[in-house]
Design a protein that fits this description.
about 150 residues, two-stranded parallel ribbon, about 70% helix, single chain, mainly alpha, about 5% strand
Amino acid sequence: MTGTSHLATGAIIGVTVANPLIAVPAALMSHLILDTFPHYGEDVENPNQARWLAVTLPDGVTVLAMAGFLLSQGYIAPLLVGLVAVSPDTPFIIEVIRNRLFGTTPDFENRSAFTKFHSRIQRLERPWGWTLEIVYAVIFGLILFAVL
C-alpha cells in the first residue's frame, strides 16, 4: 500500500479517535490490515524502474502535500497518528533506497521478526496494483477531508 493511503487512514483515525492510547495501536493495525489488500508492489527479482518511479514519486509528493496541509491547518494529532500508520514501512523504504540508489541486495535473512511478518502478509502485492492504489487514495482522501 502506498504512503498516501497509510497516511490518510492514520489521519482519519487520529481525527475520529481522541484517545491516543487507542489511536496509535489502531493506526498500526490499520497498516497491517491494508497491506493484506491487493496493492502495488514490484517483483523483487525483476523490478520495473520506470513504473516504480511513476508510482513512488507522485505518492511521495502526495504524502508531503497531505502532511503539509494537516500541519498548516493545525491537525497535529491526526498528522502524528498518520505518520505512525506509515511507520511500519520504514525498513522497506530504507531497503529500497539502498537497493535502487546504491545497488545493494535486499537482506531478507536479517530482517526483524516484525518485518518478516510484514512482508509475508503482503501476498497480494502486484505490479498492476497501482491502479487500485489510485482508487484507495481517492477513497481515503475523501473520507479524511469529510471528517476534518
